[in-house]
């Protein structure tokens, strides 16, 4: 064991008095060399990237998940590296659209009436996050995270041999009228401040970027730097294979409890057995706040339930990701099919899926792309872990330096995963952080 050699090396340099004193007590995990043992809770894309970065540094990494590697929410997302998506959700027209959207039970945003009382505190925080000062802070934090995310993902793709899975076709956001287009201009101006490139298009230029669109779309915004991946599940599994090649291990298990002190941490599995580690990384997506609560941190995470249908690749010739922001969904061409999905249902983690929402999105897609073949689709629902200010939690638990939180990325888990992996490695190794971590603090709420 790597840690044993370190302990032996230390014992030769200690004086007799210290050896006598240490014999009176059990050595701490750090004294036993276990500080290099890392347990990661969560086999989604955040946990996978954390494992890759930590294993590259020579650390002893074990990843725990109840179902497998990239088998849950990270398997079915819209496949975007959305590095230009820096606007907090409260400022994407969401507050303005709320009354209209909530009036439609199958619209872009839905809240089951029975869940509303439980959700109300989160909604109040979400509304407050729209204050001008908080908006600017969130925007700046996300822009910094996105810059790091793009650089770290491009490097990780090269190191892991997964660069061929990257698609650099840009994205096309579509507007049904002049009013919708003008309402979006302030958001594009904010992006422009951070050097994000785009151009507005209409007429033949719009048709060239995506033939076969319904004439209801009069303008669009093309973002050339927007990237997607061939399939998010396949990418996640490929990055994990790379982490494994560096020594990372996987254990299929549900984690019921976590406990920690300054010397290390303990996981209790569903079967009652325990695992010790020098550090624990909690990256369990929509379930993460339940584990954080056991450690004394109450983090206001809510679950955005997202729906999609993946059609056969022949369903329509979609040239790049199409974004229908007024309707809250996207269409993404994948290696494995055409994915039609998005929207938000704030309904927690226990309610059964309402696949009528997937069907509603598919009906709209047929209207927007009149030649679309809707047959042969596969429906899916996943849980996006979201915080009211749209900024993830990346930082240490309040009561223990041994626990690191990495969750709450909302729609941007895939996009920000490599940056989060880099930041976690910096925490574990005691290195200077690549970004200002204050906006991402678990204690900010």
UniProtKB/TrEMBL annotation:
Residues 1-11 have a biased composition (Polar residues). Residues 1-31 are annotated as: Disordered. It comes from the Bacteria. One of its GO terms (cellular component) is cytoplasm. GO terms for molecular function: oxidoreductase activity. InterPro entries: FAD-dep_OxRdtase, FAD/NAD-bd_sf. Residues 37-425 form the FAD dependent oxidoreductase domain. Gene3D superfamilies: D-Amino Acid Oxidase, subunit A, domain 2 (3.30.9.10), FAD/NAD(P)-binding domain (3.50.50.60). Keywords: Oxidoreductase. The keyword Oxidoreductase applies. The keyword Oxidoreductase applies. PANTHER family: GLYCINE OXIDASE, SARCOSINE DEHYDROGENASE-RELATED. This is Glycine/D-amino acid oxidase, deaminating. It comes from Mesorhizobium australicum (strain HAMBI 3006 / LMG 24608 / WSM2073). The lineage of its organism: Bacteria, Pseudomonadati, Pseudomonadota, Alphaproteobacteria, Hyphomicrobiales.
